[in-house]
Amino acid sequence: xxxMWSHPATVRNVATxxxxxxxxxxxxxxxxxxxxxxGIGRMAEPLEIAAALAAMIGAAGQILVGxxxxxxxxxxxxxxDPVRYLANRSSGRQGHAxxxxxxxxxxxxxxxxxxxxxxDPAGVTVVHVETALExxxxxxxxxxxxxxxxxxxxxxxxxxxxxxxKMKKDGSGKPPALALTENPDIxxxxxxxxxxxxxxxxxxxxxxxxxxxxxxxKLKRKGADWIVANDVSPAGGVMGGTENTVHILSRDGSxxxxxxxxxPKLGKDAVAARLVERIARAIGEK
Length: 286
Ligand code: CTP
Fold this sequence. Notes:
Blueprint: H1 2-6, H2 8-19, E1 28-31, E2 38-42, H3 46-61, E3 68-73, E4 78-81, E5 84-86, H4 93-104, E6 108-113, E7 125-128, H5 132-142, E8 147-150, E9 157-159, E10 180-182, H6 186-191, E11 200-207, H7 211-221, E12 226-231, E13 243-244, E14 246-250, E15 259-262, E16 266-267, H8 268-285
Parallel strand pairs: 3-6, 3-8, 6-7, 8-11, 11-12
Antiparallel strand pairs: 1-2, 4-5, 9-10, 12-14, 13-16, 14-15
The protein binds cytidine-5'-triphosphate (CTP).
């Protein structure tokens, strides 16, 4: 009904759903069934609805059915002693949303997740890990995969020698020195794997400065096909937030140049849905 459709509450709700990635078919314009009114509010014709569904399914729907998609998500915790650890602000929301969207598209999904406070997505095999070394191990065990999406904020460093018992103040007033050692780069390991490299390897780049340049360097260094770059400077509120403004860097540019696709600010679920659609198209073309 035209009045219901143009009601501010409906307009707000529709905008929210669209931002979440929900697609609409109709309403159409014409005469209303019962009230005798005319305007926007008619149900779309059944054939039009069927055609819209066919177009969606054709675009991405069947391609991922039965494919294995591996996703890493969340932070890693690197123990200092039995009660303390090094961590970061990753919530796991974006990675978990991607795992859920891939499962919804029919993929067999393995999600290797660091410690997060959000539930396991439905229909996904979840492997819970704590440290970068455990994540590396779980990723290796999950291979082979058709697609790898590495969203985890893996700690760059771990404590060189984890203390077996709680560190105590020694009364001197001097803080203890923590020696760190670099963690393995899990994405680069997969991206450069000659035998088990998935057909599509996607990394994320969280940057606070010079986003595109740094993300472009990561694309090459880590042997990824795409890098999903996002600005995590404190003003952006992305880390731990529910929205994301991302840029997709790929090697699709002419002459092997890095191509950059800028996406609008979207909810993390909508970013996941769009990314999975793009993944399906790429796998369909390969
Ligand atoms: N990554 C990974 N293993 C690591 C570090 C990062 O798999 N030890 C992956 C992340 O999951 C992400 C991508 O690499 O997909 C980029 O992560 P980021 O932290 O932005 O990059 P770094 O390698 O840490 O680079 P820098 O320290 O220069 O920012």
